[in-house]
Amino acid sequence: MIVPRIAPRIAPRIARREALGGALGGIAALLAPGMARAAALPVPPANRLGFDVMMGSRKLGSHELVFHPQGDGLLVDVVVDLAYRIGPMTLFRYTHTARERWTGGQVAELTTQTNENGTHYKVDARRENGVFVVQPPGHPSYAAPADALPATHWNRHELDGPLINTQNGELLRPQIAPEGLSSVAAADGKPLRVRKYALSGPVKLNLWYDEAQQWAGLSFVKGGFEVRYARRG
User: Fold this and answer.
1) pLDDT by residue (tens digit) across 53-73?
2) Which of 195, 193, 154, 152 is nearest to 172 (CA)?
3) What is the pLDDT of residues 110-122, one digit of tens each?
4) What beta strand segments (E) does 38-144 contain?
5) What's this model's pTM, rounded to 2 decimal places?
6) Rounded to whole angstroms, how far apart are CA atoms 153 and 10?
7) Among 233, 97, 192, residue whose Cα is nearest residue 219
8) 176, 162 in Cβ contact below 8 A?
């Protein structure tokens, strides 16, 4: 998932490192670092996850994920659309799209495009000869560690290794602390029973996964305001 910035001095900045965008379902078992059984990938029953992105009581926009199972493969499309507005004026706009392609339980390809208030980013990554090669914008490509996964959050297993920032391709190694069971509000106000993980270091946010190990939301504090993803449906 990507977490963009809201206009400086006008609204709290939302950190780029989402570390926008996922949860690993059921009893997924590792075959090797970075590899999970395709059947165990946490595809939601409706093949869709949607979140309202809130800053306090203000809705900034949405984060949508659509899943396309394809035999032993999977395509995941991510669309993020956020804006900070005062009256009729849009002071900051952020859009992000990503596509993940999984084959045989491994992430095989990642392509993303981001527009952060007029600044554009593009990330390409693909598996070549068994190695996942990431091409960040404006920097040399690198071979990601075998257990690295894109930080799109729907796959809880991303917390078991380094994260690939889907906006700028940076490899992140946050500290992750499980904080047990709690309850958070969904977009309709109903409580969700979740397990919380607190990330610190290069990424500072909380991630929540429900009892089915599907992504249930995230939160962080910036400029004294809480920004929260509230899951719909």
Assistant:
1) 999 889 999 999 999 999 889
2) 152
3) 999 999 999 999 9
4) 48-55, 58-70, 73-86, 89-103, 106-116, 119-128, 131-135, 142-143
5) 0.81
6) 28
7) 192
8) no
